[in-house]
Amino acid sequence: MGVITRLSRLKCSVYAFLLIIHIPILQGEEHSQCPSLAENPICPCYNFKEGLFLECPSATPSVVKNVLSKIRGTIQSLSIYDLESSTTELKADLFPPKIRIINLQISQSAINKINPNAFTTIRDSLGSLSIISSKLNTIPHESFFELSSVEALDLQLNDIKDIQANTFRNLKLKKLNLKGNKIVNISENAFYSLEEHLTELDVTENFLEIFPLKSLGKLNKLSNLRLAWNKINSIPGSINVTIPNLQTLDLNSNQFTNIDKNWFRCMPKIKILTFFSNQIQKIDEQAFYSLENLETIDLSRNKITSIAKNIFQKNRNIRTIDLSHNHLHRVNGVFSNLRQLSEIFLSENNILEISDDAFVNAVALTVLNLEHNAIQYLQQRCFFSLQNLTQLHMGTNFLKNLPRSIFQSNHRLVTLSLDNNEINELDELVFDKLKELREIRLQNNQMNQIKRNVFSPLPGLLELHLQNNFIQNIDSQAFITLKSLQHINLQGNRLTTIGDVFPNRDSSLVSIQLGANHLSLLKNTSLAGQVNVQIMWLSENNIKVLTANLFNDLVNIQRLYLKNNSIVHIENKTFLHLKKVKYIDLSNNKLIKLSNETFFKVVSLEELYLQNNNINQVAKDTFQYLAKLKVLDLSNNEIIVLDFDISSLPIKQLRLNKNSVSIIETDSFKSLPNLSDLEMSSNLLTWEDIIQVQIPGLKSLILSRNNLTELKNKTFSHLPSLQTLSLESSNISQLPPATFIKNQNLLRVNLAFNSLRDLHKDIFAYTTILQELNLKGNNFTDFPHVALFNVTSLEILDLSHNQLHSVDFFKFIGLQNLRTLNLCFNRISLLNGFNSPALKNLVTLNLSKNMLTVLPPNFFQHSLGLMEIDLSFNLFKHIPSNGLSEAVLPALTTLNMSSNSLVQILQTYPSKLFPLLEELVITNTNLSIITSKDFENFPSLKRLYLTQNSIIRLSPGAFSKLHNLEILDLSQNKLENIPRERLQGLYSTRLLNISQNTIRELEEFTSDLQSLLKLDISFNHITKINRDIFRGLQSLTELNLNGNWLSAISSDAFRSLNKITYIDLSRNYFEVIQIKLLMSLETQVKSLSFDENPLTCNCESQDLWKWMQDHQKIVIKGSRNLQCEHPEELHGYSFIKLPSQKLCDVPVVIRIAIQDIQTYSVIVTWQSRNQNGLSGYQVAYFGEHNPSIIRGKPLLNTTARTTKLNHLTPGSRYTICVIAVGSFGPSTYSSSTPDARIAVLPEKSTINSYGDEILLNHLKPLMNDSILSKCTNVSTIELFGMAMESPFSNTYRGIADIVARRLGLFVGCIIGFLVFVVLLSALGYLKTKKRPVIAKADEQQPPQYISYDNFNVPSVEVQTTEMDINTITDKTKVPCKQE
C-alpha cells in the first residue's frame, strides 16, 4: 500500500513539473533573445542574466519601432536617447502590440507632448518610466492614467512649471523624481491617489518659494523628501497637517535665514535633516524639540554666529551634527548630555575657546573636527567625558600650549591633529594616557625642543609629523619607545645633529624625513637598527661627509635623498649594505671625485643623480657594480674626458649636460644596447666626437651648445633609430645634404640659434616622418621651400627670429599637414600666395613682432581650421577684419592684436561675423574709446583683454552683445568712471578687472553681472563706497579695493554679497574702521585685508582691536602690516600686536561726582568711556569709622551713570568708588586683579544685608583710583550730633527722615509761591509798557547740585553717548503737594 502511494505522489509531481515548464508556451511567451546585427544595426542589444537590455542612440521613432517589432519576449530595459530632434510628440504607434517592456527611459529629446495612448501596449508590463532632459512643460497625466503597474516615474530636467491637482490619479507610484524642472507651484491635491504608495519624492533644483506642506500632508508613506536648490525660506508652522512617516528631509541650498520653533511639529519622525548651504543666522532654541528620532543634522555652510545651549537637548538619539563653515564663536554646553552623539563637525568656524562644559557626558562621541577655527584656549577638562573619542582634529587654530591633563580621559584616541597652530612646547605628560594613538600631526607649529618623555607613552604610534617647526634639539632616545612607529617627519626644522633618537631595536620605521634642516653631522649610531626603512630624506642640509658605517643598517632602503647638501667626500663602500636601494640622489653637492669603490656592489641601484656637483674625476670602474642602473645624471660637473666604463650597464638615460667634455674615448658608447636618451649639451664636443657615439638603439640625442661648426655626412649615420635630435646653438652654418640620410626615423629636429642661411634641397629627403622642425634664430631671408617641399609629414615649423621680409605662402604647398607655424620676430611686411591650396590643416599661426600693416582679403583662405592667430607687435591701425572674418577664417577662436598702433578696433564692420572667436587680446595700443559697435561682431567672445591702452570712455552698449563673455580686463587705462549701463549684457562674466584706472566714483553695478565671481577695482582714485554699489553682484566671491583713496565705506556696502569670501581694502586712507562693517562680513568672509592704512589708535579703536583679536583667522594674513599712524607715540606700531593698555590708557571711569548730600544718603554720578568687555559697574563704599566693611549696590548695567546710596551714617566720612566690571582679556590692564577680570559676586555676597545694598568686602583691593576704578570722599550731614552707632540711631533716623521730607515740602512750596508772584508781576509790567518781547541770550545754568568734587580732571578726548555730568539735575525732588 505504501509503495503504491509513493508511486502516485511521484506521478503527480512529474505532471506538475511538466505543467509548470509548459505554462509560458501555453501563454504564448518565447524566450527573450536579441535580434541579429543584420536585423538590428542601430540599437545595441545585450542579453544579460537579468534579461534583455536595449539601447537606441540617435534613432528615429520608425527605427525604434522596427527594432522592437523584431524582438519576442520581455525587454528588461529600453533606453532611447538623442531621439531625432524633429520628434516632438511621443505617438501611440511607437510600441508595437504584444511587446513587454519593464523599464523604459527616453532622454535628451525634443518631446513636448505625449499621446494619451502612447503607453497602452506596454501598460501591463511597465514597472518604471523615465522621460529625462526633454521639453515637457506639463505632466501628461492623461498619458499615465492607465499605468497602474508603474512604481517609479522620473521626469527630471524638463520644463514643467507646476503640478496640478489629480495629476497622478490611478497611479501607485513609490518613487517620483521631478528634479531640475521649473516648478513654482504644487497644487494642494497634486498627489491625490498616492497617499498610501509614495515613499520617495525629489523636487530639487526647481523654483519653489513656499514649503508645500499642504500638498505633502496626506502622503502617509512618504519617507524621503528632497527639496534642495529651490528658493524656500520658511516652513508653515500654523497649518494643522502632518507628514507622519517622513524620515529624510533635504533642504540644502535654499534661502532660509532662520529656523523657527514650530516648523517640524508636522514631521515628528525625521531622522536626517539637512540645511546645508543656506543663509541661516538664527535658530530658535526649541526648533528641534519635536524631533525625538533625529539622528543626523547638517547645518553647515550657513551664517550661524551663536547657538542656544539647549538646542539639541531633546534629540537624545542624535548621532551626527555638522555645523562646519559657519561663524560660531562658542559652543558652551551645546553638545553636553547627548549620549548617542558620535560625530561633530565644527571646522571652518570662529570658535575662540573650548570650555569645560562643551562636551560634558557626550560619552559616545568618536569623531570631533575643530579644524580651521580661532581656538586659543582649551580648558583643562573640556574633553574629559570623551572616553570613546577616536579622532580629534584641531589643526589650523591658534593654540599656544596644551594643558597637561587635556587628554587624560581619551584612552581610545587613534588620530590627533594639532598641525598649523602656535604650540611652542609639549608637556611631558600631555600624551600620557593615549595608548591607542596611531597618528599625531604637529607640523607647522613653533616647537624648538622635543623632550625625552613626551612621546614615550605611545607604544602603538604609527605616524609622527613634526615638520616645519623650529626644533633645534631632540633629547636622546626621545622616540626610542615607539616600536610601532612607521613614519616620522622632521623636515623643515633647525636640527644640527641627530643622535640616538630613533628606536634601534625592533624598529618598524619605514620612512624617515630629515630634509631642510641644518644637519652637518650624522653619527654612525643615528640610523642604527633601522632595518625596515624604505625611504629616507636627508636633502637640504649641511652634511659634508658620508662615513662608511652611516647606512650599514639600512638593508631594505629603496630610495635615498641626499641632494642640496655640502657633501665633499663619500667614504668607500658607504652604500655597500644598501642591498635593495633603487634610487640615490646626490645632486647639488660639492663632490669632486668618484672612486672605484664609491658605489661598491650597489647592485640593485636603478637611478643615480649626481648633477650639479664639482666632479672632475671619475674612476674608470666607478659604475662597474651598478648592474641594474637605468638612469645616470652627471650634468653640470667638470668632466673633461669620458673614459669611465659603463659599457656593461643597462643604462636607458645618460645625461652629461654642462660639463667640459671634449674627448670621448673610443668604444665608450659602443655597447650600450639599452641607451635610448643621451644628453650632452653645453660641452666642447666636435663632430669627430659625435662619431664615437655608436648606439644603434639611441632615440634621443641632445647636443646643443657644442662646437659643431663642420658637420659631415656621416656624423649621425650610425644612429638609425634616432627620433629626437637637438643641435641648438652649435655654430652650424651649413648642413651637408646627406646629414640625415640614415636617420629615417627622425621626428623632431632642433636647429635653433645657429648661422644657417639656407638648406640643401636634399637635407630632409629621407626623413619621411619628420613632425617638428625648429629653425628659430638663424639667418634665413627666404623660406627654405625647396628643402621642405616634400616634407609632407611636418606638423610644427618654427622660423621665428630670422630675417624674413616677405613670405610667399605658395611655397608652403608641400606642407599639407602643418598645424603650427611660428614666424614671429622677423621683418615681414608683405604676405602673399594665398590663392594656392596650401596649409589646409594649419591651426596656430604666430606673426607677432613683424612690420605688417594690412592683411590680404584672401589671407589663409584655404586654412579653414585655423584657430589661433597672433598679430601683436606689428603696425596695424585696426583689426584687419577683411582678412579675418567668417568668410575667410570661420574657425578662428583666438586673436592677439596687442602692441599695435590701433586707434580703433574695426575700421569697417564686415558683413560676416567672427562666429567662433572666444579670445581677443588688445593690449598696449592707442585705443581711447570703445564704441557701441566695436564688439557687435563677436557673439562667442569669452575672454577680452583691453589692458594697458589709453581708453578714456566706454560708449553705451559697448559690451551689450557679449552675453558669453567670461573675462573682461580693462585694467591700466584712463577711465574716470564706468556708468552702470556700460556693463549691461555681461550675463556670463566671471572676472572683471578695472584696476589701475583713474576712477573716482563708482555707480551701482548692473545686476546683469549675475555670474561675476571676481571684481578688481584696485589702484583707482575711489574715495567712497555707497551702500548699493554692489547690491546686484549676488555671486561675487572676491573683491579687490586696495590702493584707492577710501577713507569711509557704508557699513551696509557688502551686506548683499552673500558669497563673498575675500576683500582687500589695503593701501587706502582709513583712519577709522567701522566695527559695524566688519560684523556684517564676519559670517562669510575668509580673508579681509587692511594693510597699510593710516589707522588712528586710541580708545575709540578698542572695539576694532578686540574684533581683530577674536577674528585673527580672517585678518591675520591681510592685516599683519596694519600700523598705527596716529597718535605720534604709537606711530609704526602693529595694530594687531599692540597691547590694549597701550591702545587706551585712559581710565574707564573718568569722573565721579557726589550730588544731593543728605543725612543718610547721597547720589553718586559718574562719567565713563566705552570699554570693550565691560559688563557693568559696581558702586562700593566704606566709612572711615568702619573701613573693614564694604557695602554697595548690586552690579549695575553698562548704561547706568547714577545711583543712590541710602544707608549712610549722619556726620560720617566715606570713601565711595565706582568700579568697572568685566572681562577685559589677558594682560589688558595692570591691575590688582588677575587678567583685569572682576568676576560677578559669589552667591553668598548677594544676601540683602542692608535693604537694596550688599556686602562687597572682596573689592577691598580696588577701593582706590586705578585704570578700572575711580574714588572720592564725602561726609554726610550731621544730625543732632548723634553717631549712627548710637542705640537710638534707628529712632533718630526715622525722625530725621520725616523732618527732612516735611521741611523739603514746606520750602518747596514757599519757593514755588514766590516764583509765581514774580512771574505775574513781570508779565503785568511788560503788558503795561507794551514793549516787544526780546529773547534773552542763552546763559549757562549754575549746577543744581552740591558736590565735593570740583572735577579737576585733565580733559580727555573720549567719545561717549552719555550726557555731560554738569547738566544732570536732581531728580529726587518732588513737586509741591498740598496735604
Automatic annotation (TrEMBL):
Start and end residues of each Fibronectin type-III domain: 1146-1243
Residue ranges crossing the lipid bilayer per the database entry: 1303-1326
Signal peptide: 1-28
Keyword tags: Disulfide bond, Leucine-rich repeat, Membrane, Repeat, Signal, Transmembrane, Transmembrane helix
Gene Ontology CC terms: cell periphery
The protein, known as: Fibronectin type-III domain-containing protein
